[in-house]
Design a protein that fits this description.
509 residues; membrane; two-stranded parallel ribbon; 2% strand
């Protein structure tokens, strides 16, 4: 048995453990036999209600009872009784799609769920024959269909990872604030005061503090310097003329302050990016991935989230006391909370939650299988309906893969085309990664793909499962009528022959 996510890997196994516990309760108490008793009583009462012209009541009820018992016996054997032993070590986390798309994912044993897996060691779940086959077949079909979909760039997932990366070092956050005040604001003011108009390329380039235009154009970052001494750069009399040598370091130019290896702001900010996120961005082979990540990490929005809302304008103003100070802190907390809510893209979070919901639903369906079959009196219609429901649940990742691929194509068409035409950033998808709002049209399309696709799929499969289940029940009932009709016709033939023989006997006398 396989699983497509680590949570599904755990919850499906846990569901079968509880399924076995439920069936043990029903079988040990004898409750699983009650449906057979009630079904037999129903057949007997229905036979008694039929008229005398239907024939002998015993001949009518016997094949019906036999058919009911045979069908229920088969359902109990193949759909209720645990047969195939499965433990947590024999279950397999299917990473074929990850390997196909060069995505590195930790194994369940190396993930944060290792403590949960340890609790399951030594425990064995037994799966009924029918549901074991349904699971294997459903997963096989799903994986085969997913393998036929081209690998997407996972652009939206990449943005989700980048936007949830924050600068945790408060010293670095404050230094970025100082850089913005000492370098970026002065360079930006000079740019506006010395030019009558700006090209789209220039406007897009100077939209952040690490602008290539300011770094590579004379008179900007090569001229302006830090207003405070920086210990990482020694004092230079030529460069730092006019500044006092306080012994606390020199006054690097803005270009040095940003670009110098290891001690520059650029390398230090990139070092704060999680290794996993950095590796995923490199694997996407996206041009300018460093600038793409830096634009978000040093943005005022992210620095506000990283620094507790105290950067850029507030500084160290949290020293107020009394009622005014408390009100100020409360207002800041509310504002920060609203910013965090705004900075969390709703549909990106939805994509993370959907596989969790799928795994929980699979576990729920697996747990209640014995109860549903007992309450339905082991009707074949119920088996078909549950089978279609399980297949529909297992097949959902296929629709999400299609939605992800289409989403990547739409984003490439929207942002990639705009960037290539010069109306966007020179770095592909930089505007998208730095945005927390895609517009209501993009959100509507994304919602349709990720939510409406599975909902429509469930609706179609539900209708089909019910119809096929009803058809199976009708076929079983019609199959039961055949021996009844044969028995009735046989009894009538015997009766007619006996009547003819009696009539002939009277004639001979």
């Amino acid at each position: 048995m396989t699983a497509n996510s680590i949570l599904e890997y755990i919850l499906v196994f846990f569901g079968w453990l509880l399924n076995n516990a439920m069936w043990d309760i029903l079988s040990s108490t004898g409750l699983y036999l009650l449906p057979l008793v009630f079904k037999g009583m129903g057949i007997w009462l229905k036979t008694r209600e039929e008229g005398f012209d239907e024939g002998n009541k015993g001949l009518l009820s016997l094949p019906r009872l036999e058919n009911s018992i045979y069908v229920s016996f088969l359902v109990i054997c193949f759909c209720c009784t645990p047969m195939f032993p499965v433990d947590i070590s024999t279950m397999k986390y299917d990473s074929s799609r990850d390997k196909q798309c060069n995505i590195q994912v930790a194994s369940p044993q190396d993930s944060g769920y290792n403590a949960v897996l340890t609790d399951f060691q030594g425990k064995t779940a037994n799966v009924p024959v029918w549901w074991y086959l349904v699971h294997r077949l459903s997963k096989g079909v799903t994986q085969a269909m997913i393998a036929s979909i081209p690998c997407g760039g996972k652009i939206r997932q990449m943005r989700f990872e980048v936007q949830h990366s924050q600068i945790k070092d408060p010293i670095l956050t404050q230094e970025l604030q100082d850089f913005a005040n000492s370098c970026y604001s002065r360079a930006y003011y000079k740019l506006k005061s010395t030019n009558q108009s700006l090209s789209d390329k220039t406007i897009n380039s100077v939209g952040w503090i690490g602008s290539d235009y300011f770094l590579n154009t004379a008179g900007y970052y090569d001229t302006y310097t830090s207003r405070k001494p920086r210990a990482a750069w020694p004092y230079n009399a030529t460069r730092d003329a006019g500044y006092a040598n306080t012994g606390g370091g020199g006054y690097p130019t803005c270009r040095q302050w940003w670009s110098d290896g290891k001690k520059g702001l650029k390398d230090r900010v990139l070092a704060s990016l999680p290794v996993r996120v950095k590796r995923e961005m490199q694997q996407q082979n996206m041009a300018g991935w460093e600038e793409l990540a830096l634009r978000w990490l040093v943005s005022p929005r992210n620095l506000s989230l990283s620094g507790g809302g105290e950067t850029y304008t507030m500084g160290s103003s949290d020293n107020a006391s009394g009622l005014l100070g408390n009100v100020t802190r409360l207002t800041s907390s509310i504002g920060l909370g609203m910013k965090q809510f705004e900075a969390t893209p709703g549909f990106d979070a939805l994509k993370q939650a959907l596989p969790i919901v799928q795994a929980l639903l699979e576990m729920m369906v697996i747990i209640v299988i014995p109860v549903l079959l007992v309450f339905s009196a082991y009707e074949p219609k119920t088996i078909v309906t549950i089978t279609f429901a399980m297949f529909a649940l297992f097949f959902i990742p296929f629709w999400w893969e299609i939605a992800g691929w289409l989403d990547d194509q739409l984003l490439t068409l929207l942002y990639g085309t705009r960037d290539s035409q010069g109306s966007g950033s020179s770095v592909p998808f930089a505007d998208f990664v730095g945005s927390v709002n895609d517009g209501w049209i993009m959100n509507l399309v994304l919602g349709v793909m990720y939510i409406l696709f599975p909902v429509s799929w469930f609706g179609m499969m539900g209708w089909t499962g019910v119809r096929i289940g009803e058809f199976a029940t009708q076929m079983m009932s019609k199959g039961a009528e055949l021996p009844q009709q044969a028995g009735n016709s046989g009894a009538k033939e015997v009766g007619s022959l006996a009547g003819k023989a009696a009539t002939k006997g009277k004639g001979l006398k």
